[in-house]
From TrEMBL, chains A, B:
The lineage of its organism: Bacteria, Pseudomonadati, Pseudomonadota, Betaproteobacteria, Burkholderiales. Residues 6-74 form the HTH gntR-type domain. SMART domains: HTH_GNTR, UTRA. GO terms for molecular function: DNA binding; DNA-binding transcription factor activity. This is Histidine utilization repressor. InterPro entries: Bact_HTH_transcr_reg (IPR050679), Chorismate_lyase_/UTRA_dom_sf (IPR028978), His_ut_repres (IPR010248), Tscrpt_reg_HTH_GntR (IPR000524), UTRA (IPR011663), WH-like_DNA-bd_sf (IPR036388), WH_DNA-bd_sf (IPR036390). It holds the Pfam family GntR. The keyword Flavoprotein does not apply. It comes from the Bacteria. PANTHER family: MANNOSYL-D-GLYCERATE TRANSPORT/METABOLISM SYSTEM REPRESSOR MNGR-RELATED, TRANSCRIPTIONAL REGULATOR PHNF-RELATED. It comes from Caenimonas aquaedulcis. GO terms for biological process: L-histidine metabolic process; negative regulation of DNA-templated transcription.
Amino acid sequence: MAKSALPAYEQVKAWTRRHIASGKWKPGDTVPSEAALMQQFGVSRMTVNRALRELANEGLVTRVQGSGTRVAQLHRISSRLSIRDIHEEVVERGHEHTTRVLRAASEPAGEEVAQSLGLKASDAVFHTVMVHMENGVPIQYEDRYVNPAAAPAYLATDFTQTSPTLHLLQHAPLTEASYSIEACLPTAQEARALAIKRTEPCLAMMRRTVSGAHVASIARLVYPGTRYSFAGQFQA
Amino acid sequence: MAKSALPAYEQVKAWTRRHIASGKWKPGDTVPSEAALMQQFGVSRMTVNRALRELANEGLVTRVQGSGTRVAQLHRISSRLSIRDIHEEVVERGHEHTTRVLRAASEPAGEEVAQSLGLKASDAVFHTVMVHMENGVPIQYEDRYVNPAAAPAYLATDFTQTSPTLHLLQHAPLTEASYSIEACLPTAQEARALAIKRTEPCLAMMRRTVSGAHVASIARLVYPGTRYSFAGQFQA
DNA sequence: GAGTGGTCTAGACCACAGA
DNA sequence: CTGTGGTCTAGACCACTCT
């Protein structure tokens, strides 16, 4: 009986998780089959199935049809790295977010940008450069190219009120994105805009977003190393 | 009939996803109820329920009991950043992984380390420092403190055969981890070990792992900026 | 062929929101 | 009160693995 405040499938999940976390079952070990767990918990197969399926989604176990359920190799710890709208992030910390727009114009794409956006070099693209500030301190330099086909009204946005990310999310529904994070030294212009020395290391995030059939935008976001870090956590 | 290669719940998911991605349904809009989708697709409620529940898990819709299902505010884009064992990662690229151990000893924790590991400053901890190389090129400097209570045999490991991460995963089952990524300049020792200039920016990852009741390990991993980047992607 | 998971159904009872 | 989602059951058929 116990206190069954939790749904049955959660109880099965918790029980399984405990065995894995305690080391009683090691990676590669077989987890009791659905039939066995049905008996043990006195629940239907759908319930056990849901429990194990969700654990598999979370990466704790591996399931192979016809073979069985095993404790996953936990080598790849993974956690959600959230990429958030900078405005929202700053405001959530209870701070003031302001923006200084350095450039907002339509210009020919050029070879490199055209290739990333899937356009011709002579096609026009929107190019914005701005600095985001938290309580007046520069925390992000944003250099962004936007595909006019994906967000025709982009340049008309008042970027002191709305961030580019927000405008794009609202007007070019996101279907796909990729990013990479590197360490780099700022260019002269970036250093000037962020008010840092050219020798101060920075985190640079390159982001590329796809909306339906178009590559919507490519952006390079530069964060001063001493003022920003990406963090995350993970729980079994 | 169409080609129903996909399971029914996947078809419901795909149909719903398309409406959201295309912008036909905007954030906040109501998604058809389970009953409505049952009719439309001619499937049982459990099937529709699974489809919508999974979309909710993925963050695409929000469900409120008694109220309904709505398109989620898509502000929080997130993706899984995987933190993997360096050895596995190098080998998977088809390259050779070697290690140069600079230090492997038991020593008093000291204030700062003791605090992170939940020990006293005079308690002994295991301290290892090593450089990981991919085809002979240094790619990671690893400075790690290990809680002896969590992995008593740590120092006996042959680190030229097994990585610290792997040993810990096998002997101190992981229950929790947190990390942060920063940009920094290498210390003199790090620069020397990695064979880079002191002015070359690096990515530094601080990682803390918990195993059961113990903080198992804290590590600082330094990657030369020009030789490494973190990347990820996600799809709606 | 026996055992496993993947999917699906047609019901059911409940908790909750909103009129 | 009606409509919604949250959970659960006792079956079922299938595809797959392993021996």
